[in-house]
# Entry
Amino acid sequence: MGKWFVRVAIMLAISTALSSIGFSCGEVVLSVLYTVLGIIFSITMSLQMSFSFVDVENDEYVKRFRGQISRLRAISIVLFSIATILFVFSSSPFHTSFGPVSLDMGITSSVFIAYCLLSFGFNFRVLSQTKEEIEDAIRRSRRDER
# Structure
């Protein structure tokens, strides 16, 4: 829970800093970011759903990785859901200022979606590597049995 608090605080700090210096993010940029996020989300979910442990005989290994994939799936769904809500509300002209510090909904949405893109990209890479490791271990095991 502490990691998520720190991540959200960093995203809000970045959003506040960008908003305060007058940085603006157009609707087109936000729309493109969200579209790319949707594509990466669907690819990542497909990869998670296609994980097969049929040929893995180590029950503890299967149980551990299924739990990790399930956790990763839940996090992905939550992140994409929040990104969707922020994207929908980013069209509203929400902008608040406290003296020299300001916060803009479009910037906040863009920063969060950028974070989601990085997170999904990292998770996709880790899932791909894990799948390759499992397949390599199964191939070695079958080769050694011969």
Notes: Helices lie at 2-20, 27-49, 59-89, 105-145. The chain has one domain: 2-145. The chain has a mean pLDDT of 83.
